[in-house]
Design brief:
The chain has 122 residues and is of the alpha/beta class. 20% of the residues lie in helices and 30% in strands. The protein has helices spanning 18-36, 60-65; strands at 3-12, 43-50, 72-77, 88-97, 107-108. Strands 3-2-4-1-5 form a five-stranded mixed β-sheet, covered by helices on one side.
Length: 122
Amino acid sequence: MTTCIGIRGATQSETNSASDIYAATRELLEQMIEKNGILEEQVAAAFFTVTNDLNAAYPAAAARQLGWNETALMCSTEIPVPDYPEKCIRVLILINTDKSKADIMNVYLKETFLLRQKGLED
């Protein structure tokens, strides 16, 4: 049965420049696509967020550069939580798939693996 499942990912940009934001986002998306076998026609929508220190470009433009021209994309800023990784780009991709949640591989690059631990200690 086909259901809509979310795939999460995060990375960091080296600098607040359009080229670095696009490069980091492309790397993240390429890994998410490869690890989960994502086809654009499966994607219902992708939501991108950035920390307040990234404002030189929309990370969603990297998805367009990869050919996601028919997919709904949106960008926003993260809540400025203390001790949050800097220059962070996060994405939530919603896909229509027959896979189970257990088969989904979320991708955390660079120091964003720390995000998986946030909130667990509270």
